[in-house]
Amino acid sequence: MAKKILVTGGTGYIGSHTVVELQQNGFEVVVIDNLANSSQKIIELIARISGKRPLFEKIDMTDKVLLDDFFLRHRGIEGVIHFAAFKAVGESVEKPLKYYHNNLVSLINLLECMTGMGANARLVFSSSCTVYGEPDQLPLTEKAPVKKAMSPYGNTKKISEEMIHDIAGRTPLQAISLRYFNPIGAHESALLGELPLGVPNNLVPFITQTAIGIRDQLRVFGNDYNTPDGTCIRDYIHVSDLAKAHVVALKRMLDHQNEAPHEVFNLGTGTGYSVLEAIASFEKTSGVALKWTFDERRPGDVEQLRADTTLANLRLGWKAEKGLDEMMDSAWKWEQNLAAGILND
Ligand code: UFG
Prior knowledge:
The chain has a 7-stranded parallel beta sheet, sandwiched between helices. Strand 5 (122-128), helix 6 and strand 6 (174-180) form a beta-alpha-beta unit. It starts with a strand and ends in a 6-residue tail after the last helix. It has a domain at 4-184 and 237-268: Rossmann fold (3-Layer(aba) Sandwich). The relative contact order is 0.15. By secondary structure, the protein is α/β, with parallel strands linked by helices. The chain contains 11 helices and 13 strands. It binds uridine-5'-diphosphate-4-deoxy-4-fluoro-alpha-D-galactose.
């Protein structure tokens, strides 16, 4: 019988790709999401790709009564992948309490509910390389120190990992936190992708929205960094590679292969690209000349980030496969599908 997995935030960007990947690996998926930053239409698009409509319930996880009720009605869940959280770094600086309340209360409620799962309490947690702050050394291994967070958003990831760590050490909870570098790109079907709310904060949605004509021009934040072309360097990773890593992490716990109650893995490609290299890749794959200009540095930006992925490669047997061009090409096809009204009724 198919194992039943709960995906919180399963209509979101990384969540939706992971739901498809789980289904394609034979899991039965239940999705909860409050749709704060996504659309229920995503469930239909997931079904179009996989041929299976995941069960969906609109639930705000900060509501413990609703979450308790959900777990009472859904016995036999054998693992949880927790994506449901707010993720806009800038907004978290403006509205810190909104972020602390949503991201931490949701997780606390989930962890309390999961105590009722006994040996089935397996959690894959959506974390971020933001926990490393400004790195002392590159590439970043999991042994690099976790530093003071650069934003309330980042702090919620740091605190969440700490809570999970303490609880996994003292209860039957088994957990794996995955520290993503920069997830970009879209599903190869071009039916799933990133859906920014309002003006995008992140580079790639801003690039594709500029190319399609929603934005006038891209501002490249800073050209005087200590990098070969003066712009920041990031380790971009295709969202589908990321989705696969979640399934592998879950299976590791289901197969009792995990070596500690709480493990942590970096997820990136191990290769860094500058903003200008990202633009060049987009222009090459799309054939569109992007309008862009240099602007001031963006406060809080780290100069360079790059993952050492050795641990994930060895322990999870996972390796990112898709390169920057494929990431850009898929993001552009998704943007074109959005413009064609894929989410309209
Ligand atoms: N950038 C621009 N112009 C834009 C947007 C971004 O030049 O309009 C630049 C940024 O300055 C940075 C690079 O593009 O150098 C990547 O920026 P993103 O906003 O796409 O990504 P970040 O690296 O800032 O943020 C990502 C995740 C966060 C996470 C953080 C950890 O989005 O969730 O990595 O470092 F916290």
